[in-house]
Amino acid sequence: MNVKRFILLLLPLAMFAASDLVKEVRHELVTLPYYGVFDNLSYRVDGSKVTLFGQVRDPVLKDQAGKAVKSIEGVSAVDNQIEVLPASSMDDGTRMAVYRAIYSKPTLQRYQLGAVPPIHIIVKNGNVTLEGVVANEMDKNVAGIAANGVSGVFKVTNNLRTDSGK
Q: Which of 28, 41, 47, 91 could be stapled to 123 by a disulfide with Cβ–Cβ 3.0 to 4.6 Å?
């Protein structure tokens, strides 16, 4: 009887620790010095193992993300599945054009504030993927339409989520 009670008392502590680990991983990733609007980082925490996902322009950022997460107390293993995007001057030009198209829209300018804007623009071989979170469905649609209107863009995948989770 006492063993069951002891386990039930420890269970909330373990859940609290997992919640703290998720917050700490997020904090480490968003504060990486070279993480920006043209990179996308995500992660999954399974117990003490963290799997990193996303796309980055610079291989150094991939390495920094792995090292930063590995240094967190409570992390036993890191599976770094972050993709390094190919270097391309065409894609660099497309990134800037899509950035200007999105953030020049009056309804989206508020997202430009902050160290890392919440709309991430990923460009690979002329294909654009929008990642991140916006306030509502209208902002998501405006961003997608703006990106679609950029010359030289082959395809736009709008993965933006809204605050309501849609």
A: 91
